[in-house]
Design brief:
255 residues; alpha/beta; TIM Barrel; eight-stranded parallel barrel
Length: 255
């Protein structure tokens, strides 16, 4: 087993979907997700994530247009593996494209993509996106079969679904949270040894970020809902600034 060396500063991606959720509740133009994205940049975000869902429940097509024009940090375009979304990705050619599972009835993404069951289709689906210069990421559970399949289809990145760990922690199920954290750590190491870049996301809070940030294999965390909620009380820049501080603090302690 190869030695894992710390990778330095951990990148922070901010998901702005739920600024659009608040906007869409009134059907107007405010609050503007692009304004939030630019404020996130100033607060220390290394990238912006936006999920254009098939039902357009939050982020809209015009939001993606405007983000591509306005951002000076990379855009991570989250999308389902559909022909419509592939065409949008190829038109915009964002820095990164993250393929996620999507069900219309779900409130939020409930788990990782089942890559192993759909290997052949996904291999062909991501090829033109990769060829267009986009960095292809696959959102998966901390599961060896799925990580191996993501590697096999030619993805550059896996983003590990941290939701089970974060949910167990918030619900006070310490045994489950410790078990899920160990699973994430083992699978982060496995993905790294395959040559995949390792990210993590979903459900991360101030209370759960540091154990994840301590994994030297992980180079990026993507955080959205919690920080947009926290921004109601703190403001968006202080909310993001505190997350950035916690991440940097634990990374500084890695020997």
């Amino acid at each position: 087993m190869s030695e894992i060396k710390p990778v330095g500063r951990l990148r922070l991606g901010i998901n702005i979907d739920h600024i659009a959720t608040v906007r869409n509740a009134r059907g107007g133009a405010y609050p503007d997700p692009v304004r939030g994205a630019l404020m996130a940049e100033k607060a220390g975000a290394d990238g912006i994530t936006a999920h254009l869902r098939e039902d357009r429940r939050h982020i809209s097509d015009s939001d993606i247009d405007n983000l591509m024009d306005a951002l000076s940090v990379p855009l991570n375009f989250e999308m389902a593996a559909t022909d419509e979304m592939q065409a949008i990705a190829l038109r915009h050619r964002p820095h990164a494209v993250c393929i996620v599972p999507e069900k219309r009835e779900e409130l939020t993404t409930e788990g990782g993509l089942d890559v192993a069951r759909d290997e052949n289709r996904l291999t062909h689906f991501i090829a033109p996106i990769r060829d267009a210069g986009c960095r292809v990421s696959i959102f998966v559970a901390a599961d060896k079969v799925q990580i191996d399949a993501a590697h096999k289809i030619g993805a550059a990145v896996v983003e590990l679904h941290a939701g089970r760990y974060c949910d167990a922690h918030s619900e006070g199920r310490s045994g489950d949270s410790e078990s899920e954290l160990r699973r994430l750590q083992e699978m982060a190491r496995h993905a790294h040894e395959l040559g995949l870049e390792v990210h993590a996301g979903h459900g991360i809070t101030y209370d759960t970020v540091q154990p994840l940030a301590a994994f030297p294999e992980v180079v990026e965390l993507n955080i959205g809902h919690f920080l947009i909620g926290e921004a109601i009380f703190r403001g968006i820049q202080p909310a993001i600034g505190e997350m950035r501080r916690l991440m940097d603090e634990i990374r500084a302690d890695i020997p």
